[in-house]
Each structure stands twice: as structure tokens, then as C-alpha cells.
Amino acid sequence: MQCFGSFIRLWPLVAALLPTALPSAAQSKLPEGLTRVASVEGITEYQLKNGLRVLLFPDNSKPTTTVNITYLVGSRHEGYGETGMAHLLEHMAFKGSAKHKNIPQELTEHGARPNGTTWYDRTNYFETFSATDENLNWALDLEADRMVNSFIDAKDLATEFSVVRNEFEMGENSPSRVLMERVLSSAYIWHNYGKSTIGSKEDIERVPINNLKAFYQKYYQPDNAVLVVAGKMDEAKTLALVNKYFSPIPKPTRELPKAYTTEPTQDGERSVTLRRVGDAQSVAVAYHTPAGAHPDYATLDVLMDVLTNEPSGRLYKALIDSKKAAYTYGWTPALHDPGFAFFYTEVRKEQSLDSARTTMLHTLDMASAKAPTDEEVDRAKTKLLTGIELLFKNTDRVGLDLSEWIAAGDWRLVFLYRDNIRKVKPADVQRVANAYLKPSNRTVGTFIPEQKPDRSDIPETPNVLALVKDYKGEKAVAAGEAFDASPANIEARTKRGEEGKGTKYAVLPKSTRGNSVNVQLTLRYGDEKSLANKPGLASLTASMLERGTETRSYQQIRDELDKLKARAYVYGGSQSAGVVVEASKENLPAVMKIVTDYLKNPTFPEEEFNKLKQERLVSLESQKQEPDAIAFNTSQRVLNPYPKGHPLYVMTFDEEIDALKATTVNDVRQFYKDFYGAENATVAVVGATDEAAVQKLVKTDLGKWKANKPYARIVRNYQDVKAGKQSVQANDKANAVYVAGFNLPMRDDDPDYPALVLGNYLFGGGFLNSRLATRVRQKEGISYGIGSQVSADSRDKLASYMVYAIYNPENNERLEKAIQEEFATMSKTGFSADEIKAAKSGWLQSRSVSRAQDDALAGRLNSYLDLNRTLAWDADFEKKVAALTPEQVNAAVKKYLDYNKLVFVEAGDFEKAKKTLAEKKAKEPAYRSAPPAKP
User: Fold this and answer.
1) pLDDT tier at 926, thresholds 50, 70, 90
2) Are 515 and 476 in contact (CB under 8 A)?
3) DSSP string covering 573-642
4) How far apart are CA 237 and CA 872, in angstroms?
5) At what angle do helices 154-172 and 175-187 cross, to 10 degrees?
6) What's the rounded Cα separation, in Å, for the pair 128 and 112?
7) Cα separation of 122 and 866, whole Å?
8) pLDDT of 109-167, one tens digit each?
9) What is the rounded distance in angstroms from the CA atom of residue 228 to the CA atom of residue 67?
10) What is the distance between the alpha carbons of residues 488 and 508, in angstroms, rounded to a whole number?
11) Angle (CA) 759 860 134, round 5°
């Protein structure tokens, strides 16, 4: 579950839907009591007599379906003493209902990708699953039942409140998130947008169960909900099922009160200062802005990109190019009521915070004085519209992201937003900057009084129904094929080949929504000797590739990709670099020309190199104080004890910082010259393409590209690390992180590996119903997030096992005790036949869901080229898992999952926790009265 109150831009860009035929359900007789309301660009709205609104978005090109129900209640609706109640209720709704008593278990058994999220204006629950009649029946029945029959019991609240509190504490670890909360709480005097969705820790801890029940019964009703079903479906059958499960729920007699609190016009700049442990400095600024339904909202979004775009944005140039700051961003969410625009800048400790703040405020003030150019506005519009178009090629994401526009007033606002972006002119951008980016309308790190305040009157939310009434939208493109994601079908359709000296490719042609194509390309380089004593160079070199070529600047590369409506990013590891691409069939050749240009012709501009160094330095300096980064880094160093200088050596944060500072642009250029080439490259393409096109790309652009130094895969040897424990003090952090693991001498073709994989899935891999999650989170409420994972190499006899958890450091002993006891129970009694049967079903379905994602499938085909493996391996592995007996699974976990072999690392503020526990103990009575003497 997620609380969205403290995150940067968590709602995605949305718009242009692709055309589909008029829904067949609209042409047939609807079930009694169901009314067709509107249809826009492939999405059709219906309504039941009880008030429930239903949106269908069919897409038979993917073998998955998403069910998403949005309740129009969030932190905006909470009263005094109720902060965090909407989010807490979201957690409680996973505790079971009259017909679905173990929801986490059911979600796992159906192989679903589920979650629940809460934000200012709404709460939603969703499941993405394999598109079968059984799964759809189950999902609709589940959501209908927990709408009005969730338990909401005191015994569940007794443990879940501390889970939510732990989630609150997780947010308290991040200075940037806390600063955002402080700025927004100062910006809003009365409106609840000034309160974080996670709520007050005290309210979370003290909420009475009856208050929570009343809140649930008030807002979780059909007339306050919108159900979205997206993906593969028979529309008529789906409507019949919706009618079957939701129509019996009566329309409530209560009337929801209309919120009347309005934030007054801000009458002067406000300031807030936050002091916490950390290395990186930061400054944030917030302005009041119109609601998401207001026409100015789209123009504001364009203004945000003009100011914050990397690398062309005005703030980016003023702060990053001038080396006054290391990182900056901005965002403005689409909210139901007048919202906010938020800007953030991070500054290294060696830099002047005052200088960065002055430059930042001056740049924002000048936005109204200096009109944006046509180029700036066109670039922003292209980027925003590209994000919109790419989003609507993925039905699962659309099914979820509609929640944001539903909460803003109506799902059709997404189309108005898109249309309004297209209309934006430079004069419009300057107008909204002049209207809202005023000093008197902002909250920043200092307070500056003014004798003649210049205030901004924020317009009211417009009449949404009037805005969307009779809106028809655009027609769209035909959807892709109904794709069978089984290993056998994938194998039958995949074409493989090789060009040049070892450049391999795999192509899976398929008809996709919007003719989308996913590409994954990997270059492999160097050997153990040639890559020695080059700390961090591989990653730096990969990240520099796209920052300039002989014919294109970094900006031009970004702009061209946006105009081609494509995404491409580069990543680098110790012995490989890769590129991930998402584009349309018609634009793919042009996109790959850009990609191969920066792969083969990078110039490594020194100015861009210095910017990248600053970004990485500030990130590393921030991680030095973060418990999660500390714990995982320490654990990896212990479990992978390679000597310093070895390519696989794990550096400390200080070593990384020193190595980065010492690295020059010439080091990067030399690394590229020595190691880059395509002799050992692999390319996988999934989507609307054909083998000939890919073969031409590989042959023409990659086939003859040769590295100066040879490639030989570095062998990773099993190392038997002695069990032990390390506790790392992290001052002033509310949350602690637990990481424990060990190495195993095993490959993924080991006879015991299938049983170990399923055993781990049962112990720590399922969604909230694994042994660890059930005990530590569900029953005892110690941790917001706990789990375990196992992975084995395909070539080297080396596997790793890990358990991880986040928790309040005061619960350190409770966490360790619970985990140890669960290991002991697993070793002693194992898992039952029923548990194993359910786990098999969930695990196998989750594999199918994963293969249905084109980007994930491209990644798998790409890695299999290097392994000389096909999807037949997957089919065989899944067959082995399906055939496992309880005896085999229990024997494997007993043999390999030994608690006494774990290497433990814990990072948190244990000194403060020890002091707090001592203070609590001191407040307890010194003695208890003795029982009365027996007569």
C-alpha cells in the first residue's frame, strides 16, 4: 500500500487515447438497472441505480485485465483528529471481508499485481491479473464485498496502526520529503492539502475503531465510487458480472456533505526551516495554483517544464550550469481543489545555500517578466504530449491512472488537459507565471515582509460537468492482437540470428497497441585484468554516452527523442552497458539512429561530465546518512569480499566519493576507447517490427564495431562468508533497516533450485501473506515492508539469499525474535500441501503476467541470447515447479535456509531507541501489588 502525500510527481501524465471500435456492449441490450452515460476515445461510462459509475476500457492485445476501484475520499476529507484515517482505512481493507477473509492469500493465489493507494482526493484498490473468467469473477466479487463488508475490527487495528506508523517513520528518514511536508503545511492555513496523507503519528496511534468504522461506512459506498475495468475482456460479460456483484448493494440514504473550506488568498511570503541530520542542503518553494480542472492547469504544466526541464530549463541552467546547485526539479499535481506548484533544489555542502536560494527565487520571479520562447514552449508541449501518448499504449497503466482525473472531478478531464496543452502559446505561459508566481503567493525557506503585498486571487474550481458535457474527443487507432504469453507461443514466434563477429539478435514480431516496440541492447566488455583498478568508470562512461555526440548536443538528443515520441535510457554495470528503448514502429529507425550515434560517436563534453559528477556526488553524500543505503551497502561488502581493485569490489560511500572526485573526463574517454564495441553485443526487439528491419540495424550499425580490448566474462565464485552481525548507527532517523543473507553454491539448473524458489515464495515472497509478512506485518505490526528473495546465477555456481525489513529501531528485539522463530517453524514443520498448492498457482500466474509485459519480455530474450537459452528453459522450469511435492519443498528449505548462516546488518538510530525504551521503562510502576492472601 502506498501513501502519495509526500512524493514528487506521483500522478503520471495522461492523454491521447488510441482509437478502438465502439464498445460491443453499447450495441447490445444492457442489464436491467445499468445506464450508458458517455463514451470517449475507447472508454465507456455506465452507471448503476445505486450510483456506482463503471468505466470499461477494452484492449484484447494483452492477456491481462486490471480492476481498479476509486473511492472519492482522501486526506482532504478528514476532520480534526482524523488525519491519516483515509490511508489507515486503505490498510484495514486488506484485512478481510465477509466473503474474502484472507485477501492477501487470494491475491497471491491469483498471481495478481495488486495494491492500494491513498492521496489527497481519493483512495483506490487495484489488481492486474491474467485475463480469465475465474480471475475477473473473483476480482469483482472481492471489490464488491470489501466495499461494504470489510471487517474493520479492533483486533486488526491493534497491529495495523503500528504498520502505518512504521510507514510514517520511513518518510521521516528523508529530509527532502519532510521539507516538502513542512513547506506545504506552511503554505496552507486551513485546507487539508497542507496535511500529509500519511497523517499525524498521534492520530494514527489513537484513532478509535468506531470512528474508523463510521468513516468507512460513510465513504465506502457505491454512490462515492468509480469502478474501472481495463484490458482483455468480453464487454457484455463484464457488464453482467459488474451488475451481478455490485447492483445488490443498496444506495445509501445518507448524503455526503459538500466541503466548504476554502484557502484564503495568501497575504505575504512565508518561510520554514528544517534542521535534521544529513549532508546535502536543499531549498523548496511552493505557490498556490488553480485546480486540475481549471484551463490554466495545463498551461502551468508547460510552465513547469520550461523552468525545470533537464538540461534546457531556466532553473536548471541558472542553478546546475552555473554550479550553484547539484539537482533541481518541479511538479504541480492535478487536484480537485486549488492546488500548488512545487520547486526543489539540492545543494552540496561545499556550495552556498544562500546563493542557490537567491538565484532560484530570482529565476522564478523573472518567469513573469521574461516571456518563454517558442522553442521552450514547443519543447515542453512535445515532452508532455509524448508522455501522454506512451501512457495510453499501456492499458494497465491507464486503468490505474484514471483515478487521478476521477478524483479531480471527472475522468474526461484527461482529454481536456491534453487538448489544452495543445493550445498553449508563449503568451499563455507568461500570463499564468504573472498570475501565480508572485512573491506574496509563495512559501520558501525565509520570511520577507512586504509593505505593499501583491496578492494572487486563486480562481474557483470550474463546473466540471459543464466542461465535459457533450465532449466527444477524438477517434483512435486499432488495438493490437490478443497475445498468448506462453513460453511455447513466444518461442514459436521469436526469430534469432547473428551478424558480424558475435552480435546476436532476437526478434518477436507482434501487433501492439499503437504499433509500440520495445528494444533492449547490451554491450559486453573487458575482463578481470583489464577492468581492474577502474572504480566507477564503467557506470560513468555509460551515463555520459547520451550527453553529446559529434553531431548532436545533449539537448538535441533529448529533443529529437521527445519529437519522435520515444524513450531511451542508458545504464552501465561492471562489465556491460545497455540501452532500453520504447518507440513506435514508424519512428523506431530514426530513434535507433540516435541511439547508435551516441553509442558509437560520443564526445564526452567536459561540461556535461562535471554536471554528472556533481549529481552523483550529492547522491552519494545523501546516502551516507540513510539506513537503507547503509544496510544494503554494508551487506553487499560483507557477502562479496572481493579485494580492492577487483572489478567486482564493493566500495564504501567514502571510497566512491573519493574515486569520483579523482576521475577525469579523459579517464572516461579512454575507458570508452578501450572497451566499447559490439562483438559480444545482444539485441532483443519485441513489438510491431520484423526480423529484416532488426537484422539491417544490427548489420549496418553494430556488426563491424570492434573493441580494442577483448571480452572475457568475469567468473563469480562462491564464497562461504562466516555468519555474524553488524549494527550501524544512523543518527536522527526514525526508521531502521534490517538486511540478512548468505551465499549458496548453486546454479539455476540445480535440481533443488525449483523447490528452493517456491519455498522462498512461501516464506517471504508472497503479497502480504508470506510467513514473514503474516507474522511480522499482519499479526504483530512491526514492519511496513518485509520479505525475502533467492536468486541463482545461470553459469557460475553462486546463489544468494536475503531477508530484509524496515522497522522502528525500538522494535529491534521483537523483529529479530519474530524472524528467528519463523525460520525455526519453517525448519521444524515446513509448509502444508494446501499452502504449496496455492503458492504454485500464484507463482505460475505471476510468471505469465511478467511475460505479458513487452519491456520485461525484451529483457529476458536479450539476456537469454548471452546465455544461449530459449523460453523452453522457462517452460521446463515452470513444469518442475508445478510438479513439486510438499516433501521436496520442505526438504529444500530445511537443507538450505539455515538461520544460523545469516550475516546480519542493521542500520538505524539505535542509541536514541535505547534511550527512549529506558525512559518508557522508568515510567512504569516500580512494583505491582501482590495478590491478596488466601484466607
Assistant:
1) low
2) no
3) -SSEEEEEEEEETTTHHHHHHHHHHHHHSB---HHHHHHHHHHHHHHHHHHTT-HHHHHHHHHHHHHS-P
4) 35
5) 100
6) 5
7) 46
8) 999 999 999 999 999 999 999 999 999 999 999 999 999 999 999 999 999 989 998 98
9) 6
10) 13
11) 60
For cell 441490450, name the residue.
29
Averaged confidence pLDDT in the chain = 92
- Determine the average pLDDT of the residues in 88-106: 96
Q: Quick one: pLDDT at residue 22?
A: 40
Residue range 246-281, pLDDT digits in tens: 999 999 999 998 888 999 999 999 999 988 888 888
DSSP alpha helices (H): ranges in 730-804? 753-760, 771-772
Q: Give CA–CA dist 70/62, Å, rounded.
A: 23
- Measured in whole angstroms, the distance separating CA 935 from the mean position of its chain's CA atoms is 67
Between the alpha carbon of residue 95 and those of residues 408, 774, 777, the distances in Å are 28, 11, 11
What is the rounded CA–CA span in Å between residue 757 and residue 329?
41
Residue type, 692: A
pLDDT score for 640: 96
Cell of 357: 536560494
- Helices H / strands E in the chain, number of each: 34, 24
**Beta pairing, strands 113-118 & 2-3:** parallel
Q: What is the DSSP letter of 793?
A: B
**Region of 333 on the Ramachandran plot (φ > 0 left; ψ -120 to 50 alpha; else beta):** beta
- Is residue 450 pLDDT above 60, yes or no? no
Q: Are strands 225-231 and 786-792 parallel, antiparallel or unpaired?
A: unpaired
Of the candidates 464, 214, 448, the one whose C-alpha atom is nearest the C-alpha of residue 334 is 464
* Reported confidence tier of residue 703, pLDDT bands at 50, 70, 90: confident
Q: What φ, ψ does residue 479 adopt, rounded to 5°?
A: -80, 170
pLDDT of residue 502: 87
H or E segment and range at residue 328: strand 327-331
- Cβ(609)–Cβ(668) under 8 Å? yes
The three cell numbers locating residue 754: 525449483
